[in-house]
Sequence to fold (359 residues):
Amino acid sequence: MKRSFGIDLIRTLSILVVIFRHYRVTDGYNFGIYAIEFLFVISGYLIGQILLTEFQEAGTPNMKVVGRFMARRWFRILPMYYFALLLKFIIVHDIGWNILYYVFFLQNHFFGIDFYPVTWTLVIDEWFYLGTPFLLYGFVKMFGWDKKKLLLMLVGVIVLINLGRMFWVWKTNAGYESLVGNVPFRQDTLLIGVLGAFIKIHYKKVFDWFNRRGPFWLSMIGFLGFVVLIGYIQRDDVTNMNQYFWTRTIAFSFVALLITMTMPYLENKVHGFSSPKMNWLNFIISYGSKLSYALYLYHLEVLGACRYLWPELDKQLWIRNSLCFTVSLIISILLYNFLEKQFLILREKYYPSLKPNTT
Fold:
């Protein structure tokens, strides 16, 4: 599958929303969490297409597909992550041997994320990358490529995660903030993205129905209405989310479903500007998507360094934010070209993709 301008646009906008939130450009209601939800769904949607296609092309359940997928993911994720982690450890080494929690993506549950806060999302992503190939492999091994049974399996797992989350909240009264980074209870968001990929591959009529302007805007209106409702409930204090059972349980899957319903149109019908005069904006959007991983890893670290070196700039946010964003952008461009891109070249050399992809 070729690169999609619409998905590049969402990735670029999402990382900007996250940065604006962390840099206090948008104080108050945390829109950044919905940017993360979009990124989770996109990840599930794209990875789902890759896995489902490669398993099907293999013909029979094949662990080589699982191993090849893992290797490609590791080339994509781990070099940049471990490089960032090493730099942070060299500068702030008080964490000691506890750094191993971060090495093995265990910080969300067993140590805490204070050492490197943004990595909570990578933990959820990485365990999804580890678990989903085996889930699909095991199912296909037992039942073959029966699309109805596979659809029921995906829906069933999503429902089970929701039931587990409901039981956990009922039993412990767990708060929203303890659930948003909970690895097993957040896999439904990414699996709903996989469900969208499954529908694209096996239920073309359903996919084509959503790949139209009307259903897209209905889905977007539903999503924006949900965001407004949560904003009213939250009212600048995330603990207000704990007043309701549904905001801590089914809300995660509900918003992921609304986002997934926008994917067909975003992937296929949103294109760059046709005017040559707007090529610069098309470039920014597409290149911003490529830089999004590096920007995500480093923007908050640059802000922390700026606060440490020039604390007085906190009183002049526009100067501080301009400086931090510029430095983050420069770092991201350098790391994308000299680290991330080089490992992607190695990935294509040793584990070439069956088809060009967007990940």
Summary: The chain has one domain: 25-277. The mean pLDDT is 93.
